[in-house]
Design goal:
The protein has one domain (2-180): 3-Layer(aba) Sandwich (Rossmann fold), CATH 3.40.50.1220. Helix 7 (120-128) packs parallel to helix 8. It has 9 helices and 5 strands, in the order E-H-H-H-H-E-H-E-H-H-E-H-E-H. By secondary structure, the chain is an alpha/beta fold. The termini are close together. Helix content is 44%, strand content 10%.
Length: 181
């Protein structure tokens, strides 16, 4: 079994910046900001939605689908879904166009800093199934989030090999590796 933990880095080739490259985003995506500035929060989420809707999945997104890799993603950009996969969205998702068009509550929204991640148990459950003959791919995922560190720690305990820090060359090697499997 192969599981991929993906973060913002996987979507850079699709033209999306990471939150680290977008000043102020982290401050806007927290519970306190939502409570104090609901209109500004809503506008921020709508702006993110517009950016994500024009982005297209890149070769990495498509390769994960092609080879049936289970995906745990910290991304909220929806590119895995556009590519055809059904990831476990650890940090939620951006609202649908229908919700935006109809000014509905943002029930589909990113998990905010300071909130519990509702899909955390699903992600941990998936990782706990790994064994020494399985692989965890870590693609574009930062090392400073609790969930990312927990997933890596559990994979290590299960003795599952981890492949980390992909660039274009390593993605080509990954594609060849997946074809062999």
């Amino acid at each position: 079994m192969i599981i991929a933990l993906t973060g913002a880095g996987i979507s850079k080739a699709s033209g999306l910046k990471t939150f680290d490259e977008m000043p102020g985003v982290r401050q806007m995506l927290n519970k306190e900001f939502l409570e104090k500035n609901p209109d500004a929060f809503r506008n921020s989420v709508y702006n993110m939605h517009d950016l994500f809707m024009v982005a297209e999945p890149n070769d990495a997104h498509l390769a994960l689908v092609e080879y049936g890799v289970q995906i745990l993603t910290m991304n909220v950009d929806g590119l895995h879904e556009k590519a055809g996969s059904k990831p476990i969205n650890l940090h939620g998702t951006i609202p649908t166009q229908f919700q935006i068009d109809n000014d509905l509550d943002l029930e589909n929204r990113p998990v905010l800093y300071g909130e519990a991640t509702p899909n955390y148990p699903k992600g941990i459950e998936a990782i706990k199934k790994l064994g020494k003959d399985d692989i965890l791919l870590v693609i574009g995922a930062s090392e400073y989030t609790v969930i990312s560190n927990d997933i890596r720690r559990i994979a290590k305990q299960k003795m599952a090999p981890m492949l980390l820090k992909f660039n274009k060359m390593r993605l080509r090697i990954l594609e060849l590796f997946l074809r062999i499997l």
